[in-house]
Amino acid sequence: MHAQLGTPGWKAVEKKLRAASPVEAGWFFAWLQDGARREELEYLRTLLPGPVLFVLSRGFGRGYTKQVASAWS
């Protein structure tokens, strides 16, 4: 993800995330963390405050965790 920051593609992602509902953003961040390595998660936490990331991915993204991530286990 670090290599993509600042690119036109990443700017488009940021624009869509700002316009997304909390549930859509939650699913995105839950997906982004699914299977991520510790280093990747640590980097993500430098971009978003931990409590915000937690609420988005664990709260609003719980549907992803229940419906999608559980299928991969």
Q: Explain this structure to me?
A:
It is built from 5 helices and no strands. With about 70 residues, the chain is mainly α. It has a domain at about 20-70. It is globular and about 30 Å long. The model has no long low-confidence stretch (mean pLDDT about 90).
Pick out the low-confidence regions.
none
Mean pLDDT: 89
State the major sheet.
Answer: none
| Alpha-carbon Rg, integer | 12 Å
Number of E-state strands: 0
- Can you write the helix and strand succession as a string? HHHHH
- Tally of DSSP helical segments: 5
How much β-strand is present in the residues? Answer: under 5%
Roughly what percent helix?
A: over 70%
The class by helix and strand makeup works out as mainly alpha
Q: What is the molecular shape? A: globular
Which key features would you list for this structure?
single chain, 73 residues, 5 helices
Secondary-structure map with pairings?
Layout: H1 8-19, H2 22-33, H3 38-47, H4 50-60, H5 62-72
Helix pairs in contact: 2-4, 2-5
Summarize this, please?
It contains five helices and no strands.
